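Usage

Read records sequentially. Each one opens with the input sequence:
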Amino acid sequence: QVQVEESGGGLVQAGGSLRLSCIVSGRIQRINVMAWYRQQAPGQQRELVARIPSGGTTYYADSVKGRFAMSRDDAQGTAYLQMNNLNSEDTGDYYCKANVLASWKTGNHWGRGTQVTVSA
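and closes with the structure output:
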């Protein structure tokens, strides 16, 4: 069984920074892709914020380019999202998604999310 857990959310003033963490655990043979999504309001679709495929190029949504930086450490089964110069548009629930090979099956696994609130 694969588990994904996010942490690091909180309340921050506009212009401030937060660092989100994601830990993937379980009988994992390989982590293919790790990604961060956010849902800015209930009922809204989750949008892709950043994504790192194994050995590939990091993707960032236009709205966060130059402000957010994603990294991953496969040895630790972790991914991070450093968020700088935050603004109110960054408020929302942030979710980590991991596409992994576990028990010889490939699949997507989501965490429960961590809340980020940016105050004016």
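Summary fields computed downstream for this record:
- Residues 14 and 38 are 18 Å apart (CA to CA).
- The mean pLDDT is 96.
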